Amino acid sequence: MNVEECIPRMFKAYFRRFGKNALQPFRDIDYVEYKGKSYGVLSNVNGILAVYRIKNDGALKFINPDWFEKNALGVGILETFAKNLGG
Q: CA 61, CA 21: separation in Å to the nearest integer?
């Protein structure tokens, strides 16, 4: 499954999980390859809001953003987010 096809499902999953009053993510989703796995990251000016692993069959799995930040920090992913957010 194409990761582009997962975008609407990621937004739907995000608002289903956090409610209609959740912080609004940017329209663009950052795609990250980490240890051979694909992730979609929803963020805004406040930082990372939600992370979804995109499985090979297209299924989405919610990943704790704190875990993701802690593990991704060493590979420079968060520095990329900071640049994208103007930080």
A: 22
Of the candidates 44, 25, 41, 43, the residue with the CA atom closest to the CA atom of residue 33: 41
**Binned average pLDDT, 10 residues per bin, the chain of 87 residues:** 84 96 92 87 91 93 89 59 52
Task: Provide the β-strand partners of residue 52.
Answer: 40, 62
Domain residue ranges of the chain, discontinuous segments joined by +: 3-84
CB 40 within 8 A of CB 52: yes
Q: Is 0.90 topped by the overall pTM?
A: no
